[in-house]
Amino acid sequence: MKIIVTSIFVDDQDKALEFYTEKLGFVKKHDVPAGEFRWITLVSAEEQDGTELVLEPNNHPAAKEYQQRLLADGIPATMFGVADIQKEYERLIAKGVTFTMEPTKMGEVTIAVFDDTCGNLIQILQQ
């Protein structure tokens, strides 16, 4: 068994698609109508046959509350791995990404946290 799709709640699919592709560098894999919203999935540019990330609309009250509470408590919604966190931090800063935590060594790993502008904090991690 393997993970093929995971999702993140977003408050605006168009804004999220732009942020995740233009700022973070993910590649759009699917973008199809799904009722009043769209089924939008992204993949890593480095692993285009890998796990897909769904930009899931937070239109359900439980989803919206979950997303808002995580953000209010400073809890990242998900985590992405990077090979060189300092280089990635500097690349994202240059693209205008706002970090809530600069790269910080935590035992065997280094983490940083940024705001995805769509209602989430995202953590990046270098092992």
TrEMBL record:
Domain VOC: 1-127
Cited PROSITE patterns: VOC (PS51819)
InterPro entries: Glyas_Bleomycin-R_OHBP_Dase (IPR029068), Glyas_Fos-R_dOase_dom (IPR004360), VOC_core (IPR037523)
SUPFAM superfamilies: Glyoxalase/Bleomycin resistance protein/Dihydroxybiphenyl dioxygenase
Superkingdom, taxonomy of origin: Bacteria
Name of the protein in its database record: VOC domain-containing protein
